[in-house]
């Protein structure tokens, strides 16, 4: 989707702004500015709020939302690779990822309180961005099989294999159910497979 880039860049640099301020900076008519604002607001990248400026009615201002951050270039993958490469050189990568898994699982345990059985597992996978994984979950006699056709850690896992064990570690730590990764996209499979047992540890 094409985005009104100059308007977004102005809001990113100057913060919440009125329609008049945007008109003056962009050299656009009020109708054109309102059209762009409506499009961004509908997409969830913009929000409106009231700003009081002296006496009289507060002015309506428009600001970018947290969701819009994904539209601006970031270098998170390069930073992550640098951190993991240094951890690997220092022999700390396994311990680092164990700590990450425990932190993620602790947050998930709080969210899963009161849930049991398949409902708990499905909620867990939803919180782990199961939908973005293009995942399928099937019950088997021994437990469940999760297939992730869009592994969220694929690019990083190509360089650092221990990263591929993060999902089963998080599942185990969050639910107490043993989980393992028998197949992986990094090995040429179409999906990452995770087996989750029904019997707790």
TrEMBL record:
It holds the Pfam family HTH_5. Residues 7-44 form the HTH arsR-type domain. Gene3D superfamilies: Winged helix-like DNA-binding domain superfamily/Winged helix DNA-binding domain. GO terms for molecular function: DNA-binding transcription factor activity. InterPro entries: ArsR-like_HTH (IPR011991), HTH_ArsR_DNA-bd_dom (IPR001845), WH-like_DNA-bd_sf (IPR036388), WH_DNA-bd_sf (IPR036390). This is HTH arsR-type domain-containing protein. It comes from Meiothermus hypogaeus NBRC 106114. The lineage of its organism: Bacteria, Thermotogati, Deinococcota, Deinococci, Thermales.
């Amino acid at each position: 989707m094409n985005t009104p880039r100059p308007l977004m860049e102005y809001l990113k640099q100057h913060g919440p702004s009125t329609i008049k301020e945007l008109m003056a900076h962009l050299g656009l008519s009020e109708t054109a500015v309102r059209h762009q604002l409506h499009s961004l607001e509908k997409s969830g990248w913009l929000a409106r709020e009231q700003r009081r400026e002296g006496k009289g009615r507060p002015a309506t201002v428009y600001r970018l939302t947290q969701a819009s951050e994904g539209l601006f270039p970031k270098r998170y993958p390069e930073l992550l690779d640098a951190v993991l490469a240094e951890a690997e050189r220092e022999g700390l990568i396994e311990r680092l990822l164990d700590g990450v898994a425990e932190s993620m699982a602790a947050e998930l345990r709080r969210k899963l309180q009161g849930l049991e059985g398949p409902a708990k597992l499905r909620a867990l996978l939803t919180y782990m961005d199961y939908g973005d994984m293009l995942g399928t979950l099937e019950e088997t006699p021994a437990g469940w099989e999760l297939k992730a056709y869009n592994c969220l850690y694929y690019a990083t896992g190509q360089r650092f294999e221990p990263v591929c064990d993060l999902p089963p570690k998080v599942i185990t730590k969050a639910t107490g159910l043993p989980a393992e990764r028998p197949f992986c996209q990094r090995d040429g499979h179409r999906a990452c497979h995770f087996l989750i047992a029904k019997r707790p540890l």
